[in-house]
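Anyone? Bumping this.
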Amino acid sequence: MNKILTIIDKEWAEIFKNRLILYTMFLMPLLFTALPLVMLGAMGGQSAGDVTDMPPQFLQLCGELQGTECYQLFMSNQFLLLFMMLPLVIPATIAAYSIVGEKTTRCLEPLLATPISTVELLLGKGLAALIPGVAAGWGSFALFALGAWILVDSPALLARLLDGMWFIAIGVVGPLVALAGISVAIMVSSRVNDPRTAEQITMVLIIPLLGLFFAQIAGVVMVNAGLLWALAGALVLVDVGLVWLGARAFQRETILTKWK
Amino acid sequence: MIQTTNLTKVFGARTAVDALTLTVHEGEVFGFLGPNGAGKTTTVRMLTSLIAPTAGTARINGFEVGRDDTAIRRSVGILTETPGMYDQLSAQKNLTLFARLYEVGDVPGQVEKYLRLLGLWERRNDAVGSFSKGMKQKLAICRALLHEPAVVFLDEPTSGLDPEAARLVREFVAEIKAQGRTIFLCTHNLDEADRLCDRVGVMQQRLLTVDTPTALRRQLYGRKVVFHLREVGAGLPALLQSFPFVKEVEQVENKLLVGLDDPDAQNPVLVRALVQAGADVQFVGELRHSLEDVYLSLIQRGTTE
């Protein structure tokens, strides 16, 4: 455990000196938090308009919410998916730098020469990437909840904005997405020499989430608690496979002798 | 302390290390010489359990490579070819991290001890990225010793250093030798090997030879004594050649180079003979071939065989 904490300590000491990662860690969550709050604030007090423009399935989900409140709920729900992306973007950036970065700074050999096991090393690096990502997701949601509580007058809308679906998305799906991103970053980093390449390839994982985002806007899919649990279940299976593949891809000897 | 038997490493179709059989004794400084690509770093990586041998066995401190890898990593220190420090972190932070990974008992104490020993204590809070190459190398040596390993592997410790920094590193290697540690020194610097090593091994995929630098010189060139004369008279080479113990005589300007087995006993006899023959002997000395001559000769032989 001590070695895992040492790796986390080392990773964070380096992360907090890397401006690019810091910007990703702080600016993106702030942006994702500010946008829905600005939207909620701007729409408050506006006239209802024609709610029939929204996907019919969503109108059903609005339930007792009418007019502007239904619009506010609809728009806020689009950002739910962006909140889920945060735990993917941040760990992917950190993991890509922390693993390939060891190679570019030629620190990997002395590190592997210590009595640390591969599991300890990967756990340390994985947790060092996962914790800030999940913390950023949860922190952003906490800020959003606080902002919504201040900005929204309607108790019915506030209750819908902070209902269980958000907690499933941020608390369960987000960390599972992050774990998938880290596993992919580890796999990619055992094959490439450049942290940016590892980061970019890992970001491909965003595509399914973006697909979900646009599908919801288009009314093809309605994100609800049932869909999120199904997504979480699928992600557990995907994560088990990716963690296993990531650990297998991290071959000490191959990395030492083939990374040039 | 280090014992290998037919240790072999094959990468695809290329044999990097071929049946290396070697023993390095406790407290010895063993120089591992060889050209680039000779398999020196691969050998060190196998002996430090970083990579697995394809065949053969190796034991370090009684632990077997491939079976007791964690114990081996705990008991050896390694200075890799490039220092590989975390440039954004301070010298103290770098060493503290590695001390914790090596499970050192008194982390702050050991870190301070080695930073002071190598004259880096005053710069302990500076980012390693601001250090000179020599300072980084010294810091990497500190890292290799933090857990007080019995065996230390040094891969090109003075490579790329200016003469002053290189001398400091050599002096430090001599110090850790005096502490009784076993040192496995890979180097291209033959002068360094000559000065520091008790024995050297010359490697070119396979081990060409192992011996003390002095014995290697004798093995290849025998012992030669140079007689400096004011003038070499016509009959003098033949006179020396007439002694049964003289192996060969070669004249170079006003010098006679004489091959002998036991110069301590045989020199006085030859000096007496030369003086009696009317030669003015200015001085007598032993011809020393540099380790570089020996090394190049061995490598050339190894290539042609």
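Late reply, but here is one note on the structure posted above: The interface with chain A takes residues 11, 45, 48, 50-52, 70-71, 73-74, 76, 78, 80, 82-89, 93, 97-98, 100-103, 140, 143 of chain B (CB under 8 Å).
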